[in-house]
Amino acid sequence: MTENAQGDVILDHSQLSSGTEGSGLGCNITVNAGRNLQMVNSSKIKTNSAPDKFSLSQGGDAGNISLQAKEIQINTVSAINSSTSSSGRAGNIDVQADNVSLNKGYIGSLSQGANSSGNTGTINITANNRVDLTDSTIGNFSEADLTEAAAKAIKPGVINLTAQQINFDNGTVSADANGNNGIASDVVLNARDINLSNNSGIGSLAKGNSNGGNVFMTAHDIHFNHSIILTDAKGTGAAGKVNISFAHWLTLDHSYLSTIAKSGNGGAITLQGGELFSLRNSAITTTVEGGLGNGGNINVTADILLMDTGILEANAASGNGGDINLNLKGLIPSGDSLILGGANIWNDTAPTLNIIQAVSESGINGVTKITAPQLNLSGVLSNLGAPLFDSSVLSPDYCNLGAGSTLSRKGRGGLLPKGSDLSF
């Protein structure tokens, strides 16, 4: 199914859909708009794969969805979705435009139902300029219960967002695996600038013995404000890892980067920079709540780490605490306060502490390594005094310039300065 238009394509209370039942392949949906593609008022573009009525589980692949336009807007509870409830996979979703905007919109891939063993599809969103998520969700969700053999044969789809600028305002990107033996999808963001604000989140949730997906983020500048990245393994699986690469600044303000495992291994967090990594009322944590799982490692490389009520913790219950490796040129804590190691003391009622810990309640504590040559620069800076100013440009004293001269300036006598004395 292909829709080509030289101008705008507007879906208002409308739907484009295709489906397959049994072993047949679903029909692809392609929309090419010369100008804008707009979806409003609960409009939908969707494909799905349903099982054969007799075999219950057998099914073909759902169709792919491809959208191209100068501007793509998905608003007012409109959605793009591909799903499977059979052994077939959900279709891939590919969205390309100069600007992609979701305002109360949804883009998702879903594997669901008791008979589903299919793979979720890949979601690719590519914009030449901006991707904006406002009160919206992009998700890849698997509810399939898989055998170990089936799980090894399945590779989940990936969520890819690529643009010059990616902005989240109460926006969410989520990749979940809620069945057994599943693997949640990875989330990959690439941009020049990435901004998350107003309770925005990027996450991966895994239940049962499923493993969490990973989060990869690459940009020049990355800013979090009241936002979070979270990978959470609620069962026996391992939490996904978080890898962030930034060339200039990474700032967290009232925000969290966290991996949590109930009893499996905690996911590692790696931050590769960059000039400045700033934690303001924010935390980086890898936590194992119980069982014998080990806390994930925390690795940070940056010129400067600024901690203003900042927390770095790699903790575990019975397993070993994760290691913390800080490859820095300078570490600056606020209030001349920094706690290294020791018992786990941080809680929400201790608001003014800067803490770096790798603690295990009953196992072996992790190792903390910091390469920064100066942990507290505030004392050094206070001794520098006022900056020096070379006044000889305005009031030259040629006697002072002579070799071996012992004359000193007393502030009286001599010739007044002339304009011709200035040299540029």
Report on the architecture of this protein.
The structure is a single chain. The chain is mostly beta strands and 424 residues long. The protein has one domain (2-51, 58-376). The protein is built from 3 helices and 30 strands. The protein has a 30-stranded parallel beta sheet that branches. Residues 377-408 and 418-424 have low confidence and may be disordered.
Keywords:
30 strands; 424 residues; disordered C terminus; 3 helices; mainly beta; flat; 30-stranded parallel sheet; 4% helix
Overall tally of domains: 1
Coarse morphology: flat
Strand content: over 45%
Number of separate strands: 30
Cα gyration radius (Å): 28 Å
- Low-pLDDT runs of 5+ residues are 377-408, 418-424
In short:
With 424 residues, the protein is mainly beta.
Layout of secondary structure:
Elements: E1 2-5, E2 9-12, E3 15-21, E4 29-33, E5 36-40, E6 44-50, E7 65-68, E8 71-75, E9 79-84, E10 93-103, E11 106-111, E12 123-134, E13 137-142, H1 148-153, E14 159-162, E15 165-169, E16 172-177, E17 187-190, E18 193-197, E19 201-206, E20 215-225, E21 228-233, E22 242-253, E23 256-261, E24 269-272, E25 276-288, E26 298-315, E27 324-333, E28 339-340, E29 355-357, E30 368-370, H2 378-382, H3 398-401
Parallel strand pairs: 1-4, 2-5, 3-6, 4-7, 5-8, 6-9, 7-10, 8-10, 9-11, 10-12, 11-13, 12-14, 12-15, 13-16, 14-17, 15-18, 16-19, 17-20, 18-20, 19-21, 20-22, 21-23, 22-24, 22-25, 23-25, 24-26, 25-26, 26-27, 26-29, 27-30, 28-29
